[in-house]
Design a protein that fits this description.
Length: 239
């Protein structure tokens, strides 16, 4: 089974980002913002309700306290503070998800934190400690990263992720967003990369960014391509 995920719930008040209603039906897992990098309580509630109605698994997409920077700026926060921040985000979203009839089924770091946990051991440990304190959840992260190795060493379930709509560097890392061509927007190219990643057998989940132009169309193209290639699509975590 190949999971198809995307970042959703990232609107804030009157500021709208992405088209979650159009995107969610194509997904098997939804990385829902938790209010620190994006997402207000009403947006998160509506997003969780929509995910539950569609049978889409809900994941807590935790990030730095950085609304202005959309969580894409590194924050040098002490480990104990970061662990508390992650735990806070987990608990808040899980409460909203349960009120909607669902639950938080996994965790995924967002933005700068996603990259930091592979190069800052203290921050990686903080995220893992928060998941452990919450009772343990699968953790979604970059395939081949030291972070996922640390997740496995802690006895948690690591879920290797690939990106259908991001360009890769030769070492397997992502091309920085500031570089030309870092974000792929052509549905044919995105779908082709998704199938290539899935066939390589190194990832269990594929991501399409919810804030990418035409994200719903990209997700639809990826799902259709996977099914056409006889690669079954399904969530890695029970909703």
């Amino acid at each position: 089974m190949i999971d198809l995920n995307a970042d959703v719930g990232e609107s804030f008040g009157r500021w709208q980002l992405g088209d979650d209603d159009a995107l969610l039906p194509h997904l098997t897992s939804a990385n829902v913002a938790c209010g620190f990098h994006a997402g207000d309580p009403l947006t998160l509630r509506r997003t969780c309700e929509r995910a539950v109605s569609l049978g889409v698994s809900i994941g807590a997409q935790v990030g730095y306290r950085d609304l202005a920077g959309f969580g894409r700026r590194y924050v040098d926060v002490p480990g104990d503070e970061l662990a508390a921040d992650v735990l806070y985000q987990l608990g808040a979203l899980d409460g909203i998800a349960r009120a909607a009839g669902g639950r938080v089924a996994y965790l995924k770091p967002h933005g700068a934190l996603y990259h930091a946990v592979s190069s800052h051991p203290e921050q990686a440990r903080a995220v893992i400690e928060a998941v452990e304190a919450y009772g343990g959840l699968p953790v979604l992260g970059l395939a081949g990263s030291t972070f996922l190795s640390a997740v496995a060493d802690a006895g948690l379930e690591p879920v290797a992720e690939g990106f259908a709509d991001r360009a890769y560097q030769p070492d397997g890392g992502l091309v920085p967003r500031s570089a030309p061509g870092a974000v792929l927007t052509d549905p044919v190219a995105v779908a082709g990369q998704a199938v290539e990643l899935a066939r390589a057998g190194e990832v269990r989940s594929l991501c399409v960014h919810g804030d990418s132009p035409g994200a719903a169309g990209l997700a639809a193209a990826v799902r259709a391509a996977l099914e056409e290639a006889d690669l079954p699509v399904g969530a890695f975590a029970t909703p």
